[in-house]
């Protein structure tokens, strides 16, 4: 109570002081008005000028400045007495003190009015100066209210001490904040892919920055290079996981590009896993393919056009032939119709395992063969309808006349003739057009008998295709591989083997049990007393050093006596016919030791712009989806002209004669 009483007494003293100050100002104003002389009242011009000067210096009454505070400002006081009378609102305990202050202020205001009225006669001649404005601040009238302190911010979870921070369970890590991806245009995506591929080529270029050009190597420093060595392996888990390589080819225009065909994924997790793929790999970018093309089904054969560096043809398991363009990504630019939608034309209705390009750069055609015995000729400008269709039939077959073609190749000098390999193991010649005395179709008068299982590859010798003249007796060579664990070297115009005795053979086949057994081949004895109408041709050489299915073989593009083959045990063999017919020149196994399906030499040196370059790289592809590229020593593949042909002829002459049909 004493503190509150002291506060009331202090406010009373302050009000008394304000009263005395007001009374003193009133007395001064009255004394100044009494001293005005009569002469000043007789000069109206001077009085008017003084009024104008005061009006220009003093602001109007309604524009008087008001104190600005954080709280809402009270209305402006009409007079000093009103400002004093109204005052700020006092709290409830101070109501008695405020009433006393107001009661004291009322007599003073009443006493001031007569004084002002008494001064009226003295101001008759001149207007009294405006009263001085006295503004009181709130600090004088009341004590300042304490401002509430701002609440301290709560520490975030990251700023909390480690002791107070709640520990997350170890098996539930905090998920990162997901931010919405900004939209990216197709042009920007293509730009990034193109430029990143260029940067990868630059970074992948091998260069030894520590090479000492002042060092003179000694004899012991010059180690002999390996005969064959692994250069690189192409694989990409994103695209090629659980896929197998079904075919390989190299680009003729760009020798560093290798084309690989793949089947569908064995584990179908997404919609795109049902599609076959064709990947174009670059020797300078080994982490990802240069191009990836899709197909509606498994791609079982592929061919890089030797006349168009941008075009790639592929045969599918569904019977379609697709054409891709590297300038148009992903999808094929042309495709052949399916058999049920061919509208009267004969097309493939079975897997297309063989593709060949015939002709020249100005006039060329694509030849395809399928397992249903249909051979079609296409123009690359229009794949909607075949230019030619030929259905191969074998009237000698005791069970079915349909020919299951597993591989095809065209004769180098005569493109109207071609050779086909069948699923039963026999090889046949065929004609594309009717000739005098010869009809178009399969030539059953000459049967190449030597394999007792499906033939996996047939390839003619490339010497005549390059325009080289082969020695007499070595023209028309071709190579075959089979699932009977053997490969064979044939001659197209070889003399037939001695005819079997009448009634011994009624269907030509390498396996006597198939050819003569009444149980497995009952229809073969339709004419047991007639002489066979066919001539059996045996291979020149059989290579029997393999221990599994021989899946593929390819001739070297320049060397006439060198070829490479792969088998299902993952082994790669390089043969030199002029050196040995029993043992391969080079042998190695792939790093993964998985089965190999295809092999292909690069096409370096096949075009005039390549100069004197020699093909040394060899690509293999297998069931694990990996493409291994090997480099063969130059000494093994550099051709020596006629010396190679002579060595090859001597080796074939010394070979034992082919075994007669038993």
UniProtKB/TrEMBL annotation:
Main subcellular location of this protein, as a coarse class: cytoplasm
Record keywords: Cytoplasm, Repeat, WD repeat
Biased composition (Basic and acidic residues): 18-27, 60-69
Subcellular location: Cytoplasm
Keyword Lyase attached: no
SUPFAM superfamilies assigned to the protein according to its UniProt record, in alphabetical order: WD40 repeat-like
Alphabetical list of InterPro entries matching this protein: Dynein_IC, WD40/YVTN_repeat-like_dom_sf, WD40_repeat_dom_sf, WD40_rpt
Origin: domain of life: Eukaryota
Region of interest: Disordered: 18-182
Molecular function terms, GO-annotated: dynein heavy chain binding; dynein light chain binding
Pro residues: bias regions: 145-154
Composition skew (Low complexity), residue ranges: 104-127
Alphabetized Gene3D superfamilies for the sequence: YVTN repeat-like/Quinoprotein amine dehydrogenase
Gene Ontology cellular component terms for the protein in this record: cytoplasm; cytoplasmic dynein complex
Compositional bias of kind Polar residues: 36-50
Gene Ontology biological process terms in this record: transport along microtubule
Protein's UniProt name: Uncharacterized protein
């Amino acid at each position: 109570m004493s503190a509150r009483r002291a506060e009331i007494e202090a406010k009373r003293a302050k009000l008394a002081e304000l009263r005395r100050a007001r009374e003193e100002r009133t007395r001064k104003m009255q004394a100044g008005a009494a001293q005005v002389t009569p002469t000043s009242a007789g000069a109206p011009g001077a009085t008017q000028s003084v009024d104008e000067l005061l009006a220009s210096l003093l602001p109007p009454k309604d524009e008087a400045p008001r104190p600005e505070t954080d709280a809402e400002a009270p209305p402006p006081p009409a007079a000093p007495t009103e400002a004093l009378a109204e005052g700020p609102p006092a709290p409830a305990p101070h109501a008695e003190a405020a009433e006393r202050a107001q009661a004291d202020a009322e007599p003073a205001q009443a006493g001031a009015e007569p004084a002002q009225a008494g001064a009226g006669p003295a101001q008759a001649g001149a207007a009294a100066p405006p009263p001085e404005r006295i503004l009181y601040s709130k600090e004088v009238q009341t004590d300042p209210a304490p401002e509430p302190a701002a609440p301290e911010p709560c520490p975030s979870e990251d700023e909390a001490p480690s002791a107070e921070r709640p520990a997350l369970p170890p098996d539930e890590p905090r998920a990162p904040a997901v931010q919405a991806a900004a939209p990216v245009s197709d042009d920007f995506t293509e730009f990034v892919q193109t430029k990143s591929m260029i940067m990868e080529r630059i970074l992948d270029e091998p260069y030894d920055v520590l090479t000492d050009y002042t060092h003179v190597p000694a004899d012991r420093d010059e180690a002999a290079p390996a005969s064959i060595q692994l250069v690189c392996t192409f694989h990409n888990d994103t695209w090629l996981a659980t896929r197998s390589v079904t075919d390989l080819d190299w680009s003729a225009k760009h020798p560093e590009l290798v084309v690989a065909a793949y089947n569908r994924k064995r584990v179908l997790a997404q919609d795109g896993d049902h599609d076959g793929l064709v990947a174009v790999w670059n020797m300078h970018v080994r982490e990802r393919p240069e191009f990836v093309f899709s197909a509606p089904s498994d791609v079982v054969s592929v061919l890089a056009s030797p006349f168009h560096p941008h075009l790639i043809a592929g045969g599918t398991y569904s019977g379609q032939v697709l054409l891709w363009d590297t300038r148009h990504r992903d999808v094929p630019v042309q495709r052949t119709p399916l058999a049920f939608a061919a509208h009267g034309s004969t097309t493939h209705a079975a897997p297309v395992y063989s593709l060949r390009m015939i002709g020249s750069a100005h006039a060329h055609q694509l030849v395809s063969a399928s397992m249903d015995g249909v051979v079609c000729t296409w123009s690359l400008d229009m794949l909607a309808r075949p230019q030619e269709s030929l259905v191969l039939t074998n009237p000698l077959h005791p069970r079915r006349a349909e020919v299951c073609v597993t591989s095809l190749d065209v004769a180098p000098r005569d493109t109207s003739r071609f050779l086909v390999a069948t699923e039963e193991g026999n090889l046949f010649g065929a004609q594309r057009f009717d000739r005098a005395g010869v009809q178009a179709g399969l030539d059953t008068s000459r049967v190449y008998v030597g394999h007792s299982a499906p033939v996996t590859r047939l390839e003619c010798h490339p010497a005549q295709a390059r325009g080289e003249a082969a020695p007499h007796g070595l023209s028309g060579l071709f190579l075959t591989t089979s699932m009977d664990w053997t490969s064979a070297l044939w001659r197209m115009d070889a003399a037939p083997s001695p005819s079997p005795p009448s009634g011994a053979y009624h269907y030509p086949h390498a396996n006597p049990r198939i050819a003569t057994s009444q149980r497995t081949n009952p229809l073969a004895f339709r004419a047991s007393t007639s002489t066979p109408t066919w001539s059996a041709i045996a291979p020149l050489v059989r290579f029997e050093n393999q221990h599994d299915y021989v899946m593929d073989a390819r001739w070297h593009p320049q060397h006439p006596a060198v070829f490479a083959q792969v088998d299902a045990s993952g082994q790669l063999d390089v043969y030199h016919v002029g050196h040995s017919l029993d043992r391969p020149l080079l042998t190695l196994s792939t790093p993964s030791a998985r089965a190999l399906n295809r092999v292909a030499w690069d096409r370096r040196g096949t075009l005039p712009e390549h100069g004197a370059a020699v093909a040394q790289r060899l690509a293999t592809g297998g069931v694990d989806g990996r493409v291994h590229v090997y480099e063969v020593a130059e000494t093994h593949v550099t051709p020596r002209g006629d010396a190679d042909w002579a060595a090859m002829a001597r080796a074939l002459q010394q070979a034992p004669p082919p075994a007669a049909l038993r």
